[in-house]
Structure formats: C-alpha cells, structure tokens
Predict the structure.
Amino acid sequence: MDPDSRGTVRTDRHERTIPLDSAPRRRGLIGRARRLGRFTAVIAVIAAAVIGIVLALSAVHLLPQFRNPLAETTVDRSSPALLKSISALSRYEAASGSFQVVVDLQKRTSWLPTFIVGTQTLFVGEGTDIAFVDFSKLKGSAIQVSHNRTQVAITVPTARLEPAVLNVQQSHVFAVQQGLLNRIGNFFSSNPDSQHQVYVLAQKKIQSAAQHSELLIQAQRNTRTMLIGLMRSLGFQQVTVTFAP
C-alpha cells in the first residue's frame, strides 16, 4: 500500500484517493475563523463603548440629545387673536367662586339598545364665577352726607354675577361610551364639534350653582366693608350702605 505522487493508496480490493493536505487546510480555516471572531468581538466592544460615551454626554447636555425620528410633533399655525372691542369698567369685583361639576350626558333612541346606538359622556368641568357691584350708573343722589359731615349714606346696586367661565385646561372628558353604529360612523367621518355640548352644559351648571350659592351675599358683604373703610378714611364716623334692587 504505497501512495503514489498524488496521494492515492492502493489496496487489493479497491482503491480510494485521500487528500493528504486536508488536515493543514482545516487548521488554517479554524485559525481564520478564530481571528475573525476576535476581530468582531473587538469591534463590538469599541462600538458599545462609543455609544455609551455618546449617550452619557448627551444626558449631561454636552452633546445634542437624540430624539425619536418617528415622534409626533405639534405645530400651531393659528392666526393671531383679533381684538373685537374694549369696554370701560366701573365696577367692584367683590367675590369670586370656584366650582366643579360632573356632567353625565346620554344620547339614546327609544327603539334600539344603547350598545347598538347611543353615547354616554362623563365630563368633569372646572370653572369660576365673579360677583360684582356696578358703580357706573350711580348718581349724586346715591350719596347723602349730613350737615356736620360726620355721617354718610350710600345706596348702591345689588351684586350681580358675571357669566361663568369654564377652565378648559382643568376640565376634561372622563369617559365616553359609544354604541356599535356610533363607532362605525365616527370611523368614516369625525365631528370636531361632538364635545361642544358637554362644555356648554357644564358652563350652564356652574352658572346655576353660583346663582344658588352664597356668592352674591358674600359680594355685598365685601362691598359694604370696602365702602365703610373708604368713607371712614375720609373722616366720616357713621357710614350706612344700602343695596337697592
């Protein structure tokens, strides 16, 4: 069984060809793979270190912060506000009240259940109302001074309420439930005025609550205290304040 010059081993039964240089070639491939693995590991370590340094510098604002390129941004393209009118005020704002109201607005039909057609909106409204006394229509006869200038009687209008103002930043929709057909309709066409009704209803409820509260009584009490202090600072010893209807 002597090999010839090409590495062929001959036997009595058959012959087969065995490459004599396959082992060195295999060791060479293994060495290359190991060197490539080490090189890849070194590159990965360097890349991780660079990313860590960049993120650290960005966190301490030494480099610009990286933002999500797919993040949503809001652009305000509204036109400037237009001044429509200016009113001169001659009144005393005597009291202010803060109110909270929960609006439960339901819309339904009489012949279908609400899970098919209908909506229910829970809205939490925050608002304020101001009670004031109007001095713009006071006449000379509204102030009566005694001959010795020690007594004065003042007649002023009763306190009134401003229209309630809803705080849109603190007010919010708490929950909305819609029927199946309503959801399908909203999917194909949106109504930007759909929440307007709950805002209007909340404002009306706050106005009604202010009307039935002690805000007007407190406003007249504060107005009387203010006028008495003002008149006494002018030298009057006895001050009478009357609220006319």
